[in-house]
Amino acid sequence: MDSLDTEVLKHALDWCANGHQVHLATVVKTWGSAPRQAGAMLAVRADGHVVGSVSGGCIEDDLIVRAQEGRLPAQPELVLYGVSQEEAARFGLPCGGTLKLVIEPLHASDWLEQVVHTTQQQKLIGRWLDLKSGKSTLTDARPGQLTEVNASGCHFVYGPHWRLLIIGANQTARALAQIAIMLEFQVIICDPREEFTADWDMPGVTLQAGMPDDAVGAIQTDSRTAIVAITHDPKLDDMALLEALISPAFYVGALGSVRNQSKRRERLLSFDLTEKDLDRLHGPVGLAIGSRTPAEIAVAVAAELVQVRRQFEDQRVGGLEQPPA
After folding, report:
1. H/E element holding 25?
2. Per-residue pLDDT band at 320 (split at 50, 70, 90)
3. Fewer CB within 10 Å, N- or C-terminus of the chain?
4. Residues near 204 by Cβ (< 8 Å), separated by ≥ 6?
5. CATH superfamily, with its number, for domain 162-312
């Protein structure tokens, strides 16, 4: 299973290879309450077929009409939607939101194939687009690097900016991994029990060998890493938590009832962890939605990951710029 953005590029690559005329629209800057953020993409064929989204509204309809009428640019072009209140209302942008898009024609032999190949391996890759020449150059990229635009070009980053280490290779882990990949997480599974990992086969998911506490260090846990322990085995889950709770991970969670979490807290306090360390633990893991099945638990955990991740991002981004006059 690929991330949603990889699916857009993959469809675009297939369309180009089959001889279709394809354009890619990418959000490069937003102002106000824009429905999609910088980096959101939509691919549109000349016959009006589309994949992806840049607004979830009428901007898609406008791009489809322009594609069908042959009015999309032959060279990369910056386009502004929603500058005035009237335009914002016309294109379904809330609260006077404004979007700046770059619209560019695509070719099968261009950068697309390498980017799709790299992102399907759960790796990051960057691309510099020269707006004057239309030439694309692939670059290195780092987690957290944002889409950038200036007078001469745009820099895009494709692939997962976040990582999720799941302790336990069970049904809940499988369901959570599938959702997390779509949410642009690089997913790593650690479970030292061979009977659980012998037949594990999930494309795009990495199996980390060794014990859970070693895995937290081996993956070089940073502030863009989430760690979730779901083995139901205290020996394994607690080993991971002992390291995870003193790591820079932005999210640490553990599966279990309120009663089990209380017992876990007592056990962990008997080691070197402090009350402050344990206050970082999300347990029971996930949002309280009444989940019971593995799939429902995965949805609850994924929802809380999104919630905490957004809080992290909002703190980083800070204030809003004003749209162009």
Report:
1. strand 22-31
2. very low
3. C
4. 1, 2, 120, 121, 122, 181, 187
5. NAD(P)-binding Rossmann-like Domain (3.40.50.720)
Instruction: Report the 10 Å Cβ neighbour count for 86.
Output: 9
Provide the token pair at 194: 């061979």
The pLDDT of residue 86? 64
Instruction: Copy the structure tokens of residue 159.
Output: 């692939």
Nearest alpha-carbon partner for 295 in 167, 172, 164: 172
Give me the helix-helix angle, 294-317 and 171-182, nearest 10°: 40
pLDDT for 319 equals 43
The pLDDT score that the predictor gives to residue 87 is 61
> What token pair was written down for 282?
């999300």
Domain ranges for the chain: 4-114, 162-312
- The per-residue pLDDT for range 126-179, each reduced to its tens digit, is 999 999 999 999 999 998 888 999 989 999 999 999 999 999 999 999 999 999
Token readout for 154 is 């745009």
Round to whole Å and give the CA distance between 154 and 147.
7
